[in-house]
Amino acid sequence: PKSNKYDYIDWYFDRIMRELPLPIPGDGNQKVSLTNSEDVASLLASVLNDEATAVKQRIFNCGTDNLISYNEVAELCAEIAGKKATIHLYDGESLGKGKFPFRLTDFFVAPDLAKEKLGWTGAKHTLKEDLPWYFENYQARGGDTKDLDLEKDQEILSSC
User: Fold this and answer.
1) What is the rounded CA–CA span in Å between residue 102 and residue 137?
2) 74-89 burial string, b = 16+ CB within 10 Å, else e?
3) How would you class 93 by CB atoms within 10 Å of its CB: exposed for 0-12, middle for 13-18, buried for 19 or more?
4) Who contacts 98 (Cβ-Cβ below 8 Å, separation ≥6)?
5) Going by C-beta distance under 8 Å and a sequence separation of 6 or more, which residues neighbour residue 15?
6) Nearest-CA neighbor of 104 among 113, 114, 115, 95?
7) Residues forming beta bridges with residue 43, ordered by sequence position
């Protein structure tokens, strides 16, 4: 119930748990926001702080401003799993994104408008705090033993 980002974070754990390289496009410093569902719910509830403004504005970005790089996600996942992350950076422009779960560029939204106009206080959760329960759930779902299609990873890694 705390996340719908299984495909995103599983991609990291799938490789780390099998001690496989993580093919990350670019320099890996692209920023991403992974938002806990409780933070999303609190942002949605903040509409009640000023319903007239919410109706007038109509569109608000729903996410955290706790940004983290693709490389940092790898390192945090490895830390939680008690393993080493073997990051393999590659040219995403020429080789594409393969099975990498995010865009080749930054992948986040800024919730500044919700903070400014609705008085939302911001995200209370961080990925680092969420990863222990997430990893436990990953293992309970059999993530570390499921079959993987690593063909795209192998194509990318053999091209570098």
Assistant:
1) 21
2) bbbbbebbeeebebeb
3) exposed
4) 23, 25, 152, 153, 155, 156
5) 21, 22, 153
6) 95
7) none
Smallest CA-to-CA distance from 160 within 106, 72, 92 is with 92
State residue 5's pLDDT score.
66
CB count in 10 Å sphere of residue 133: 12
Instruction: Work out the angle at residue 137's Cα, subtended by the Cα atoms of residues 131 and 140, and round it to the nearest 5 degrees.
Output: 145
Write out the two tokens for 39: 């933070």
Q: What is the pTM of this model?
A: 0.87
pLDDT < 50: residue spans in the chain:
1
- Would you say how long the chain is, in residues? 160
Number of helical H runs and strand E runs in the chain:
8, 4
Place of tokens 């996942």: 77
